[in-house]
Structures are given as C-alpha cells and as structure tokens.
Backbone:
C-alpha cells in the first residue's frame, strides 16, 4: 500500500514539473522601451555582458513594468527597443522604429 502512495506522489510531482517547465518555456511576451543611458550600470565583471539597464517598459496595451537586462555594449540613447520577455526575464531585445510601437506604447514613449 505504501509503495502505491509513493508512486502516486512521484507521478503527481512529475506531472507538475512537466506542466511548469512547459509554461516557463512557452511564456513569451513583448514589451517596449526607450533607451535612457542615465539608467545603465557598468558591471565589474570579465563576462561578455558589461552593462545592465533597468528601464520602464510597456506591453502592447501600455501597461508599465520595470525590467533589467544586460548588454555587451552601451545602447544608442533614445533608441526604441522591443524586448522578448520570458518567465525568467528578458530573453532578447532588438531596436525598432517608433512606427513599429503599438499605439498605447507610443502614447507612453514620446517620439524623439
């Protein structure tokens, strides 16, 4: 009887782990921001990522959220970025034009 209980618990925990990992891998959202080099911190490490930005970002509906992400170089002041955010934070970023920003984000991030 105890063996069946242990097997049942292991199966339930395994199923929870699979569902959790699937969610973490498939959670993907895009946020937008504008580079502000006054909010960059130079990291004192020998790694490739030498700078860390902490910026106010907005989802496609204009909802604000703060994110931190690392880069290998300082970014162009005033550049607009599209951030791919997964469950563990910013996965990647790319520079975009103002016109590519959703309308609610354009209202939050004024044109240059």
Residues:
């Amino acid at each position: 009887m105890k063996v069946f209980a242990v097997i049942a618990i292991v199966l339930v925990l395994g199923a929870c782990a699979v569902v959790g990992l699937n969610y973490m891998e498939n959670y993907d959202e895009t946020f937008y921001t504008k580079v502000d080099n006054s909010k960059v911190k130079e990291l004192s490490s020998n790694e490739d990522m030498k700078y860390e930005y902490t910026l106010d970002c907005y989802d496609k509906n204009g909802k604000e959220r703060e994110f931190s992400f690392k880069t290998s170089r300082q970014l162009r002041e005033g550049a607009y970025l599209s951030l791919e955010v997964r469950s563990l934070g910013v996965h990647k970023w790319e520079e975009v034009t103002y016109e590519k920003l959703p309308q609610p984000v354009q209202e939050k991030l004024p044109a240059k």
About this structure: The first strand starts at residue 29 and ends at 34. Strands lie at 29-34, 40-42, 51-58, 64-71, 80-86, 89-96.
